[in-house]
Design a protein that fits this description.
Elements: H1 15-27, E1 33-34, H2 46-57, H3 70-84, E2 93-96, H4 101-110, E3 116-120, H5 125-133, E4 137-141, E5 143-146, E6 149-152, H6 154-159, E7 165-170, H7 183-195, E8 199-203, E9 228-233, E10 246-249, H8 252-265, H9 271-282, H10 286-307, E11 322-326, H11 328-334, H12 339-350, E12 352-353, E13 355-356, E14 371-375, H13 381-396
Parallel strand pairs: 1-12, 3-4, 3-7, 7-8, 8-9
Antiparallel strand pairs: 2-10, 5-6, 9-10, 11-14, 13-14
Helix pairs in contact: 2-9, 3-9, 4-8, 10-13
Length: 397
């Protein structure tokens, strides 16, 4: 007997491998400062938890509609639309067990085997994995570092669109870069999508996880609503990573097919968790505001700590909870040419655990700079300051 050959195309979220290494180091009695995984050590708002408890007590523990319960779809249509200056109907909303399933279901719905899909690299590794698993060709596009963060290489993106390109995955407020498109950059991406008649997956997981400014959805630009699927998740705004609740907001024809995939894949998202989502959207919003306040303090501690280390630098992003840190000079000063070896040495010498650029898509041959990603969502600001102080001492020793 043998396993299906398509499994060779299935990648994984390799940040979890860093978690295993960190856990192993901690199990040996060592202190670990966890910057590696974008989870939260902050509680879900109490009103959301109470809503779930009520739903369970009320017997909301059975099957429900594959596309989601009506109150949640109505609430999402109204809230997502209002925050983006758009209008959606409940029929545009298909509830998911997390944001991640939207990626695979989008790919299955719009991509024929053999077609090409553009995806950001560095970027969330599941994009690449799902495109290839379902028989497509994953075509990376890239970013360039600027004094204020990262910008899309628009010429590179345009040059890699071919007659076989069917879709583009776009992640503004991006993981791992924390980059945000200017209005001009977003409009340029939209023009390419319209000119080449591309479907677009707009991953908006961090749309409301920001500390300054206002978010814009590419779906709200002229000509984009009918070709764009929005990925929405409760994980970030409501600190609900383990609850597994999200949604696809899509044109009706696409939404109908995603709902059919729900029926085939998981029947429905947990009934009582959906009622918690209704409370999250329609109830008291002080919880999410308090979460952002805590994360803003952590961001500032992390940015200041990184930029105090010789040979490391990062911009101060307005959104997400990641820093993509240039460590090229620090690595050279320590005699490292391999960023994975640098990360292992940092863990063993300082306890600071982090992911590297290699965990976010296959590096391209012409990349010369070295980067690490620090997630500050699961570590206190005092520990951030202590950890980066230790990292700085090691780098300069």
């Amino acid at each position: 007997m043998s396993l299906a050959s398509r499994l060779q195309n299935l990648g994984t979220e390799t940040a979890f491998a860093v978690s295993l290494a960190a856990a192993d180091w901690a199990a040996k009695g060592n202190r670990v400062f966890p910057f590696h995984l974008g989870d939260m050590n902050l509680p879900t708002p109490a009103n959301v938890v109470a809503a779930m408890d009520r739903a369970i007590a009320d017997g909301k523990t059975g099957y429900c509609a594959a596309a989601g319960i009506a109150p949640l779809r109505e609430a999402l249509a109204a809230d997502v639309g209002a925050r983006r200056g758009m209008s959606f109907e409940p029929g545009n909303v298909v509830v998911q067990p997390g944001g991640k399933p939207v990626i695979g279901k989008f790919v299955q719905t719009v991509m024929e085997p053999g077609a090409e899909v553009l995806y950001p690299n560095p970027g969330y590794p599941i994009y690449e994995s799902q495109i290839e698993y379902f028989g497509g060709t994953a075509v990376p596009y890239r970013y360039v570092e600027t004094p204020t963060g990262f910008a899309l290489d628009l010429e590179y993106l345009a040059a890699h669109i071919t007659p076989r390109t069917t879709a583009l995955i776009y992640n503004d407020l991006q993981n791992p870069l924390s980059s945000e498109s200017s209005r001009e950059e977003m409009e340029a991406v939209a023009r390419l999508a319209i000119e080449h008649d591309l479907w677009v997956l707009s991953d908006e997981a961090y749309f409301e996880m920001r500390y300054a400014g206002e978010s814009t959805s590419i779906a709200s630009l002229p000509g984009m609503k009918d070709r764009t699927v929005i990925l929405y998740t409760f994980s970030k705004k409501f600190a609900m990573t383990g609850w597994r609740l999200g949604a696809a907001i899509a044109p009706l024809a696409v939404a109908e097919q995603i709902a059919k995939l729900n029926t085939n894949d998981e029947s429905c998202t947990a009934h009582f968790v959906q009622w918690a989502g209704v409370e999250g959207i329609t109830g008291d919003q002080s919880g999410p505001a308090a979460l952002r306040d805590v994360l803003r303090v952590r961001r500032d501690a992390a940015v200041d700590g990184v930029n105090a280390i010789p040979g490391m630098h990062t911009a101060r992003p307005d959104a997400t909870f990641y820093l993509f840190v240039n460590v090229t000079e620090a690595m050279a000063a320590k005699g490292f040419t391999d960023v994975a070896n640098f990360a292992t040495a940092a863990l063993h010498q300082t306890g600071v655990s982090f992911c590297t650029r290699r965990h976010f898509g296959r590096p391209q041959p012409d990349e010369e700079q070295q980067y690490i990603r620090l997630a500050y969502s699961g570590i206190s600001d005092t520990d951030i300051t202590e950890a980066l102080g230790l990292l700085g001492q090691w780098v300069t020793a």
